[in-house]
Amino acid sequence: SSISKIHKLLFAAYKKAVALRMVQYNPMQAVEPVKIKYKEMSVFSFSELIRIFRVLRTNKYYKKYYTLFYLLLVLGCRIGELLAIKWEDIDFDKREICIQRAKDSGTGQVFHDPKTKAGIRYIPIVYDACINRLKAMQTSGKITYINGFVFCTESGKALNYGNIRRAWLKICELAGVNKNIHTFRHTFATAALTKDIPILEVSRCLGHADANTTLKMYGHAMPGFNRHIIDLFQKKKSKSATKTATINQQS
Fold it and tell me: How far apart are the first and last CA of the chain?
């Protein structure tokens, strides 16, 4: 993917140079672009999710991360985007979360815009359980937080990815799972497509700049329409037979 992007950049640069008569020809025309091969994305099985969340629910050291990993599963956002969410980004009435920044993977409090313009988006909160967990987090004691980071330290700073990753590795060890944090995102996308949610909407929720990227990465998860086509024709055939029988009876 990186090689493909570099190829496009150099091709465009030399094309402009030719137009400005800075060079006589575009040498990138002789370089064949690489074909990007998307491997099938790994997802969590149902049994793996059961084991993971059992650890998060019962382990006294890692239960504080339950809601964090639950949101990764049901929102499909990147871990850096989730760590950068603030309370003012959540609209409980509209049941959606605005993704407009991402936390750098380093140890500091460095934030940046999402990877693409499409990365700035509103993600629907589809489950009541998710709403309830967020509302429970928002109210601590007699204080209701209306600003600040959702996932933060006692001093109010956003959690660091490094700490989350170390906790995740230990959770995986306890749950008997060997997959990375990004698998939550892949699982969300695959589950959404298998529920017949249009690929454009899935792409929007994921923050992909191009729906073709979503199609190439998760196209294998889209349900086949052979059964649907058969059902449609059988239904049409049944209606036709009923209509013929009715005509015969009347005649």
Answer: 68
